[in-house]
Amino acid sequence: MARYITAPTKYAVLRAIAAYGNVTKAVDAVNSSLEETGDSRGRLHRATVYDWKKKDLSFAESFDDAIDSFADSLEQRALERIDSPSGNRGSDTLLMFMLNGLRPLKYRQGEQRTDDAKETLAAVRLKLSASKDAEVEVVLASGSAKQNHPPKA
Q: In this structure, is residue 152 part of a structural domain?
């Protein structure tokens, strides 16, 4: 039986996505919560969430915000691990991969941020321009800038 969707249901899904960072886990949490309250309108399916994301621009933006919120919580966990490096912390490798996936421009090795790439391109253009100017000066100084025609025979 398909679930009748209400705004509070969508909001609950978004909160769960922000908490878990995973649509399946979020849907399971919302379904469990609805079952505990005696709601018998049917189960929510993960495909429904992706359908909302595709058809509802406001939901799609909120979905992206929820994922960003989850990424913020991962960053916070990483910072807490720096402050307290001992104990049962979970997998540092998994945390690293999750941050790479959620914030690739910030955490993925070997990729430059767009701003860094623009700065690098500007620096390269400046160096090329300066080197061309230097080459022209060398040519002018050596007298090679004069038109060299082969001697007439």
A: no
Asked whether the whole model's pTM tops 0.70, one would answer no
Q: Which domain holds residue 12?
A: 7-110
Please spell the DSSP secondary structure of 25-83, one letter per residue: HHHHHHHHHHHHTT--S----HHHHHHHHHH-HHHHHHHHHHHHHHHHHHHHHHHHHHH
Considering the domain architecture, whether residues 86 and 128 belong to the same structural domain is answered as no
Count of the separate structural domains present in the chain: 2
CA atoms of 113 and 108, how far apart (whole Å)? 10
Q: pLDDT, tens digit, for every residue of 1-10?
A: 344 567 888 9
CB-facing half-sphere around the CA of 127: CA atoms within 13 A? 6
Identify whether residues 86 and 17 lie together within a single domain.
yes
CA angle 128, 131, 137 (to 5 degrees): 145
Contact 21, 98 (CB under 8 A): yes
